[in-house]
Amino acid sequence: MLGTLREKLGRTRQAIRQKFEELLRGNKTQDEILGELEEALILADVSLATSGKIIAALRSRSRPTDGFPVLEERLKEELVGLLGQYDPEFRLDGDPSIVLMVGVNGGGKTTALAKLAYRINAPDRKVMMAAADTFRAAAQEQLTLWGKKLGVPVIRGQYGADPASVVFDAVQSLKAQRFQVLLVDTAGRIHTNTNLMNELEKIKRIIGREVPGAPQEILLVLDSSIGQNALIQAREFLKFSGISGIFLTKLDGTAKGGSALSIVDELHLPIKFLGTGETEHDLEAFSPAQFVEAMLS
Ligand code: GDP
């Protein structure tokens, strides 16, 4: 797994490694090295606040004689510690379990949902998907195509129907057919933000009423290729309560993979999954240590 992730994070790693190579060759003071490390983080799109915090922690742990190799190892430890401070476990402990996917259109929500369906679906854990974005025919169509490809049933509603009613129908199907997991794709129009948040709250309320304890997970899908703008989008979605983790998409082909650090640091949420491509196979469960190795080494 580390091999593939390393490959996918190639562009982010290049941005950082270039600085590291210079540091390895050069004869810099510790202060200068710390300054350069901070710059390397910023180049990989770690926010100013988060990179400042990481370097301050590194500085306070260093002895004056520590050179670059020692600092590099400590930096990795700091990054792993930061990324691992919230529990990344994906909980499907309900009977049945329901997962809501939320996020801005275009961020990769539908693809992320399909990847999860592919990963989870098994004879003893049957998965169903619900297309609750009833105002975007294309979104419903896309999920239906995924359903056919993966052999996973999709519940969809009439164009313009109340998304909560589609979810209600899906939950009834889930129970009647004794499936174990329902994955719900939701709308992501941010220009009507208040309405969207109300719509999501309503969906969540109906799920909780029909299946006590559900939804087990509410994953916020964020596009890593827009770097720190993902944080701005995320803050809008945090007005909606109960987000349990982040699904970070499009890590392949971006040099902005460092945004993962600011996302965890500033949103106080675990990253649970990484999207690394457009097919159902391009999914990684998040591991802080593997991520840091892939990003830096
Ligand atoms: P949604 O509007 O949030 O549901 O986004 P979609 O799932 O439709 O994805 C938007 C576009 O991003 C599509 O062209 C996807 O194939 C693409 N996409 C989604 N996830 C990834 C990923 O991890 N890597 C890459 N390279 N493309 C992705």
Description:
The protein is of the alpha/beta class and 297 residues long. The protein contains 12 helices and 8 strands. The chain has an 8-stranded mixed sheet with strand order 3-2-4-1-5-6-7-8, sandwiched between helices. The longest helix has 18 residues. It is elongated and about 70 Å long. It starts with a helix and ends with a helix. The site of guanosine-5'-diphosphate has 19 residues, from helix 6. Guanosine-5'-diphosphate binds next to helix 6.
Q: What ligands are attached or bound here?
A: guanosine-5'-diphosphate
Cα distance, first to last residue?
15 Å
Global outline: elongated
Strand tally: 8
Strand order of the largest sheet: 3-2-4-1-5-6-7-8
Largest sheet: 8 strands, mixed
Series of secondary-structure elements, N-terminal to C-terminal? HHHHHEHEHEHEHEHEHEEH
